[in-house]
Design a protein that fits this description.
The complex is a heterodimer.
Chain A lengths: L3 E4 L2 E4 L5 E7 L5 E8 L3 E10 L2 E4 L7 E6 L2 E6 L8 E8 L1 H4 L3 E3 L3 E5 L1
Parallel strand pairs in A: 2-11
Antiparallel strand pairs in A: 1-3, 3-8, 4-5, 4-9, 5-6, 7-8, 9-10, 9-11
Chain B lengths: L3 E2 L4 E5 L4 E7 L6 E7 L6 E7 L4 E4 L2 E6 L4 E6 L8 E8 L8 E3 L3 E6 L1
Parallel strand pairs in B: 2-11
Antiparallel strand pairs in B: 1-3, 3-8, 4-5, 4-9, 6-7, 7-8, 9-10, 9-11
Classes of the chains: A mainly beta, B mainly beta.
Chain lengths: ~110, ~110
């Protein structure tokens, strides 16, 4: 258990509406990540954070923004959801103290845009 | 351009035999490699990793081999068990650069037949 909580776990939203997914961790990890998983594409990095207010783009960042105003929360926002953003979203953390360069994942958030 | 490739979408193996999952990468800066297993409706779980200073790492039934000159790594599972049936992802990171971005392949679905 990496101490990661994702919310909401399941959400259905309409095209054009804003959506925010939250990743909460309780163990003071510096690095946090957002991935999406889609058939045929595997896991693709959206954005990641290396500290409070420090974020960087991943492979598929268009249409997404992130914020990290405190260590424990990393928010992923879809400003105007599109059907192509229907996916499973996974948060991950890097736990340097215990395992060096390994990242651990949360349980996922299923998002459907109709 | 896909930096981490898993060219076999699926693999079927008889119980008790060896499963070999393959992964290729293109970025010579990658120096840390990981394998994850994923069951449906769950987050990916870490299996085993290897640093570029090694060419082999073992953990129980799981062994990862790294061939840097070929930019190729493989995961061996011996003996394979029905519970190993899952999707397996390889991942790579250029940790020496200090950015800690983890790029994943598209996954291989392993089915172990009883």
């Amino acid at each position: 258990d990496a101490g990661i909580t994702q919310s909401p776990r399941h959400k259905v939203t309409e095209t054009g509406t804003p959506v925010t997914l939250r990743c909460h961790q309780t163990e003071n990890h510096r690095y946090m990540y957002w991935y999406r998983q889609d058939p045929g594409h595997g896991l693709r990095l959206i954005h990641y954070s290396y500290g409070v207010k420090d974020t960087d783009k991943g492979e598929v960042s268009d249409g997404y923004s992130v914020s990290r105003s405190k260590t424990e929360d990393f928010l992923l926002t879809l400003e105007s959801a599109t059907s192509s953003q229907t996916s499973v979203y996974f948060c991950a953390i890097k736990d340097s103290l215990i395992s060096g360069n390994t990242i651990y994942f949360g349980e996922g958030s299923w998002l459907t845009v109709v | 351009d896909q930096q981490v490739k898993q060219n076999s979408p699926s693999l079927s193996v008889q119980e008790g035999r060896i499963s070999i999952l393959n992964c290729d990468y293109t970025n010579s800066m990658f120096d840390y490699f990981l394998w994850y297993k994923k069951y449906p409706a769950e987050g990916p779980t870490f299996l085993i990793s290897i640093s570029s200073i090694k060419d082999k790492n073992e953990d129980g039934r799981f062994t990862v081999f790294l061939n840097k000159s070929a930019k190729h790594l493989s995961l061996h599972i011996v003996p394979s068990q029905p519970g190993d049936s899952a999707v397996y992802f390889c991942a790579a990171s250029a940790t020496a650069s200090g950015t800690y971005k983890y790029i994943f392949g598209t996954g291989t679905r392993l089915k172990v037949l009883a």
